[in-house]
From TrEMBL:
Phosphoprotein in keyword set: no
Source species of the chain: Geobacter benzoatilyticus
Lineage top rank: taxon: Bacteria
Alphabetized SUPFAM superfamilies for the sequence: Acetyl-CoA synthetase-like
Swiss-Prot/TrEMBL keywords: Ligase
An example molecular function term from Gene Ontology annotations: ligase activity
Protein's UniProt name: Phenylacetate--CoA ligase family protein
Length: 452
């Protein structure tokens, strides 16, 4: 007999949290109404928490004491949110070189949760989050996931890389009674596994679908091509990758519900989430978010490297951390949903997704997806790789309608998008696999750009 989401939410989940001694449900109640506070109140709260975090980092971590001393700035010198820019940026290389010195000496190691990034842009990063921060982030993420129509205890069709739901009996029990994920491994998304997953979802009827943007799109396209129907979730949460407009349109058409776009990373968890009105709000419950280009804040409507300060992780503070993505802050100052948190117009993808042209132009991978690959109907799959300023490699999986005209279209588009000074080669491949994280990268540039 299947347990209802309401029973799990009101009985099993509170008992489980009590047994584990986790406070996230209490945090969740405290978050009611937090997103509708006046922005000035939100920013005052951020500043107060920032000052406390900076003092802690200076007193308890060798790395940040060196950082402050090297700039002749003391925590007491930070009196406004703008003053945060007096501090240097934190990079992935900094973390790899100074990881142990970033860990707070006053927090026992048994209170730290070890994490590791997927390494989708190079070498992975190992980090720690203190347990109190982890529980706060857990509650915050649930509060935003409710925007998609989901709540604790309800079934989730999880199209995710390397699902861990059934690794042992404890994990299986936890998933059955608590997280309730119905997993599809994105590293095994062949026709047979997707058909089997479709049959499973027909029986178990998830309330929402959750997964990588591109993986959700592939599954939706498979169902549409095979004329399979009957999966009607209340909502869909897309995360971990840029969600392209054509992917959103396909997903929403196939499943008959809206997609909630969510953005985050392993290091700091949720960064931004799309509200029911379609605006991408920054997570002010946990972070301070900046948009930087050439070391300076960008104006609304301009792309900038995303820089975050985690206000909750005292175990291993992340202060002015360059996530590695580019986003565009919005000029909008209000939203019909009532959330007062600042809005990001769009996520432009990884810093390394930008192609640099000899003419000094910077073209985002998301732009190329929609203004290059989408104009090539004979191409089933494509990846652009740049290792030299004037040379690109187009890795192509041929579709059924691929022809000499397709090659001519590629040449024409390459000239229009990249200019006459850029050479290119075409490399035909049988498939372009997702990375070990389950993510698929359409564009990879190994050159420096203003967001690097």
């Amino acid at each position: 007999m299947s347990l209802s989401g309401s029973f799990i939410r009101t009985v099993i989940v509170p008992l489980w949290a009590m047994k584990e001694g986790t406070p996230y449900l209490r945090h969740l109640k405290g978050l009611d109404g937090s997103k509708k506070r006046p922005l000035a109140q939100v920013q005052a709260d951020q500043l107060q928490r920032l000052k406390k975090l900076l003092g802690h980092a200076y007193d308890n971590t060798p790395f940040y004491r060196r950082q402050f001393d090297s700039t002749a700035v003391k925590p007491s010198d930070i009196s406004t949110l703008d003053d945060l820019r007096k501090l240097p940026l934190l990079t992935k290389d900094d973390i790899r070189a100074n990881g142990d010195d970033m860990i707070a000496r006053n927090i026992p190691r048994d209170q730290l949760v070890a994490k590791k990034t997927s390494g989708s842009t190079g070498v992975s990063v190992e980090l720690f989050v203190d347990e109190a921060s982890a529980q706060w982030k857990r509650a915050v993420t649930v509060s935003y996931d409710r925007w998609a129509g989901w709540d604790i205890g309800e079934r989730v069709g999880a199209i995710w890389g390397n699902p861990e739901c059934y690794q042992n009996w404890r994990a299986h029990l936890r998933n059955s009674l608590l997280t309730r994920h119905i997993p599809l491994d994105t590293l095994k998304m062949g026709p047979d596994t997707m058909r089997a997953y479709y049959d499973t979802l027909l029986k178990k009827k998830p309330v929402i679908l959750f997964g990588h943007a591109h993986s959700l799109y592939l599954f939706a396209r498979f169902l549409e091509e095979k004329e399979l129907s009957g999966i009607h979730p209340r909502g869909i949460i897309s995360t971990c990758m840029v969600l392209h407009d054509f992917e959103r349109q396909t997903i929403e058409r196939v499943f008959g519900c809206r997609v909630t776009n969510r953005y985050g990373c392993e290091e700091v968890s949720l960064i931004a989430c799309e509200c029911p009105e379609g605006n991408f709000h920054l997570n002010c419950d946990t972070l301070i978010v900046e948009f930087i280009r050439d070391g300076k804040p960008v104006a609304p409507g301009e792309p900038g490297a995303i820089v975050v300060t985690d206000l909750t992780n005292y175990g291993m503070p992340f202060i002015r951390y360059k996530v590695g993505d580019v986003g565009i802050p919005s000029a909008k100052t209000s939203c019909p949903c009532g959330c007062t948190y600042p809005i990001m117009d769009s996520l432009e993808g990884r810093v390394a997704d930008y192609v640099v042209t000899p003419d000094g132009n910077y073209i985002s991978g998301i732009s190329l997806t929609e203004n290059f690959a989408m104009h090539l109907p004979g191409v089933k799959q494509m990846q652009i790789v740049q290792e030299e300023l004037d040379h690109l490699t187009f890795r192509i999986v041929k579709g059924e309608s691929f022809s000499e005209q397709t090659v001519a279209d590629i040449k024409r588009l390459a000239y229009e998008r990249f200019g006459a000074r850029v050479r290119f080669d075409i490399e035909y491949v049988d498939s372009i696999q997702s990375e070990s994280s389950g993510k698929y990268r359409f564009c990879i540039s190994k050159l420096q750009n203003p967001f690097s």
